[in-house]
Amino acid sequence: MSRGHCILSHGFESGPDATKVTALAAAAETLGFTTERPDYTDLDARSDISRVGDVPARLQRLVELATRAVERGGPVVLGGSSLGAYISALASLQVPTRALFLMVPPLEMGPMPRLDAAPVPLSVVHAWHDEIIPAMGVVEWARARSARLLLLDDSHRLSAHVETTARAFAELLETL
After folding, report:
1. Residues 105, 102: Cα–Cα separation, whole Å
2. Which residues pair with 101 in a beta bridge?
3. What structural domains does the chain harbor?
4. Which superkingdom, per the lineage (predicted)?
């Protein structure tokens, strides 16, 4: 029997087989969680809507997937990278979520609401040298929520710390 279901959302210009969400899925499955990695590439390609595609439709897709997972029973954990982290956090406000795992989350996304999240166990991984999302804003956002925060000597893609990130996700799941 599954300990819960993890929905892991990739970042912009990435995909469901991206290195980080694949590593997170493997960590979760090792611990007895089922996983799902939605594909948002069709929505990311909608440059006619914004430079980062159709963010409202991305959020709606995740909310629908998470709602179905909740209806099937068992706790749902949401996680993602960059734009995937942003929609995961916002979706947690709309769907019962057991925990959140956010990698390099943007605090703002154009006309969309500022980053917010349900008051659930929360882990944030960010890069000191993130060239897109300054670290100090994320540090303050995480502090205000008493989140577990891991800051790494890396850039936005966190490519030098894939295994470290997967271990941090496993540590969050082990607490549930």
Report:
1. 6
2. 79, 123
3. 3-173 (3.40.50.1820)
4. Bacteria
Residue 41 CA neighbour count, 13 Å, CB half = 8
91: how many CB neighbours lie within 10 A of its CB? 28
What is the band of 1 on the pLDDT scale with cuts at 50, 70, 90? low
Query: What gap in Å lies between CA 7 and CA 89, rounded to an integer?
Result: 12
Taking the C-alpha atoms of residue 45 and residue 52, their distance in angstroms, rounded to an integer, is 8
User: What does the alpha-carbon distance between residue 24 and residue 42 come to, in Å, rounded to a whole number?
Assistant: 22
Where residue 44 falls among pLDDT bands split at 50, 70, 90? Answer: very high
* 72-90 b/e (C-beta count within 10 Å ≥ 16 → b): eeebbbbbbbbbbbbbbbb
Percent of the chain residues topping a pLDDT of 90: 96
Cα–Cα dist 154/171, whole Å:
20
* Positive/negative CA dihedral, 122, 127, 133, 135: positive
Sign of CA dihedral 155, 160, 161, 162: positive
